Amino acid sequence: MRVRIEDVAAAAGVSMKTVSRVLNNEPTVKEATRLRVQAVAKSLNYRPDPSARSLAGRRSYLVALLYDNPSANYLMEILTGVVEACEQYHYGMVVQPVAYTRADFVQTVESLVALSRLDGLILTPPLTDSIALLDRLDELRIPYACVSPKVREGGIGVTLDEQEAAREMISLLASMGHTRIAHIRGHAAHGASEWRHEGYCNGLRQAGIDYDPSLVVQGEFSFDSGMQAAHALLDLDDPPTAIFAANDDMAAGVMSVAHGRGLDIPGDLSVCGFDDTPVSRQIFPTLTTVHQPARDMGRQATVELLKAIQDPASGQMTHMPYALQIRHSTGPAHRQRT
């Protein structure tokens, strides 16, 4: 027999309304009561009835994670965090790819919300950078949270100081004696690509190294684009001794090309990335990178969204920390190859 909310209330010695507040993570419940109700619900193996809950609250208790990002590693980390938050708040979720380059993608998102009766959206780059989409969601009063948006004021979601992180990475390479430091930019539509390039420039400037446009190559945040960029950089008459890729997938592509050319990493070439996705620890040598807590960012963005769904005055833009992960793919600069 299915355990009902009335059963949880009776066993915990509280009202059904109190149980509902606990299950919806509302702040108006004493901590001791919250813990008692949660313990009882767990012991009884209580699961909310989605249909009854939806009718009672006039909500679908369903949110969607929208993406158009070629990095499967990054997306999986975000997705895991979103799932954790949805489980905490007893929400369902859908995952939906959206082609950012399509002329009608804003209408596509609008139709998805209407057909699925979504309570809100979690947006990832580059969708977070579309003013047309954000304006339309605001107009329709559809709650949404952004992961790493280009515009950080006035919205809800999570951000990370990617520009400063990139600057710190370049400073690290410069401290190792590298002066020929190349950069593979991310997808042109992503705000992250701009921030990481600006951080690269700031790091060079701080180290007294002139900016050389021949050392900056456009990528797409994909392994293949990292390989293509690596070939272009390593074919230069005066190739770099270090390459900073705007994400780990492209850095892995660089390392694949370097290995294929018989180059030692980091003896002949230092390589570093950004994000600290699982691939950074799975390749050889392990990759020096910037740890972006993507899983925590996905979870926190979802928490902020669900707060805003419960109370439109709630939800905020939160700032997450980063950290350099110095591993075996970077080392001192050696004499330039001839």
UniProtKB/TrEMBL annotation:
<dbReference type="InterPro" id="IPR010982">
    <property type="entry name" value="Lambda_DNA-bd_dom_sf"/>
</dbReference>
<dbReference type="GO" id="GO:0003700">
    <property type="term" value="F:DNA-binding transcription factor activity"/>
</dbReference>
<dbReference type="InterPro" id="IPR000843">
    <property type="entry name" value="HTH_LacI"/>
</dbReference>
<keyword id="KW-0804">Transcription</keyword>
<keyword id="KW-0238">DNA-binding</keyword>
<dbReference type="InterPro" id="IPR046335">
    <property type="entry name" value="LacI/GalR-like_sensor"/>
</dbReference>
<dbReference type="InterPro" id="IPR028082">
    <property type="entry name" value="Peripla_BP_I"/>
</dbReference>
<dbReference type="GO" id="GO:0000976">
    <property type="term" value="F:transcription cis-regulatory region binding"/>
</dbReference>
<feature type="domain" description="HTH lacI-type">
    <location>
        <begin position="3"/>
        <end position="57"/>
    </location>
</feature>
<keyword id="KW-0805">Transcription regulation</keyword>
<dbReference type="Pfam" id="PF13377">
    <property type="entry name" value="Peripla_BP_3"/>
</dbReference>
<dbReference type="Pfam" id="PF00356">
    <property type="entry name" value="LacI"/>
</dbReference>
<protein>
    <submittedName>
        <fullName>LacI family transcriptional regulator</fullName>
    </submittedName>
</protein>
